[in-house]
Amino acid sequence: MKKKKTKGLKRIIGAIIFLFVFAGLGFLYLNMKYPIGYNSTIKKYANKYDLDPYLIASIINVESSYDKEAISPKSARGLMQIGPQTGEWASEEIGIEGYTEEKLFDPETNIMIGSWYLDRLKMEFDDNLDHMLIAYNAGSGNLNKWLENEEYSKDGEEVFNIPFEETRNYLVRVKHNYKIYSTVYKSYFDSNEEDNSSVDIANNVRTIIKQLVR
After folding, report:
1. 17, 51, 78, 202: which sits with the fewest CB atoms below 10 Å from its CB?
2. Residue 1, SS3 per DSSP
3. Which listed residue (63, 97, 102, 124) is catalytic?
């Protein structure tokens, strides 16, 4: 009888340990795949430009995986991957004193410019989310050309065939991220205190992985 109780207790303990390990791995996966941070900064500029903060958070993850030091092959920089020309243009329009490209690595400056640019796209494309995202990735010029081409748009109002594979994937990824962020982090932007714990975990794990690979 005592042996049966011992075995039963071991099974319960084993199950509890398994659940803790499983939950821990799930938490780690979530923070690696869908980190989130800079909530007060995102909320600040989402409010200023009447944007959805979860949209900004999703774009940041797709663009840079919340790596504020990220640089693309085309020299786009920072969290929202702002290109040099866009950064220069925005700095003049917004009035950023002493602007240099290095400031694009500053989260506040980068999110401010990225949000400003999204607002410009929102006005240009009448708040059409798909068009905003397509233009953010491929440029307004390309989108307008596609809308005027029957090969890509039947009515001049919607693009049914995006010729750039990167842009097609980008559109899908941002929308998928939005579903995750707006569900998993539903109350994240309720707080006014900056919370970068998720980003810190993701960056620490990435650092460890890089060191192990080396």
Report:
1. 17
2. coil
3. 63
- Token pair in block for residue 142: 């390309």
Each residue's pLDDT, cut to its tens digit, for the chain (214 residues) gives: 555 556 665 666 655 554 544 444 554 566 779 999 999 999 999 999 999 999 999 999 999 999 999 999 999 999 999 999 999 999 999 999 999 999 999 999 999 999 999 999 999 999 999 999 999 999 999 999 999 999 999 988 899 999 999 999 999 999 999 999 999 998 888 887 788 888 878 777 767 776 777 6
Catalytic, 165? Answer: no
User: All domains of the chain, ordered by start, with CATH?
Assistant: 34-213 (1.10.530.10)
Distance CA 4, CA 94 (A): 73
Q: Which H or E run includes 104? A: none
Distances from the Cα of 143 to the Cα of 56, 87, 114, 159, 174, angstroms: 21, 20, 18, 8, 17
Dist. CA 205–CA 197, nearest whole Å: 12
Q: d(Cα 183, Cα 71) in Å, to the nearest integer?
A: 29
Q: Is 151 within 8 Å of 192 (Cβ atoms)?
A: no
CB of 204 closer than 8 Å to CB of 92? no
Q: Which two tokens stand for residue 101?
A: 């490209």
pTM for the structure as a whole: 0.85
State whether residue 113 is helix, strand or coil: helix
What gap in Å lies between CA 46 and CA 211, rounded to an integer?
36
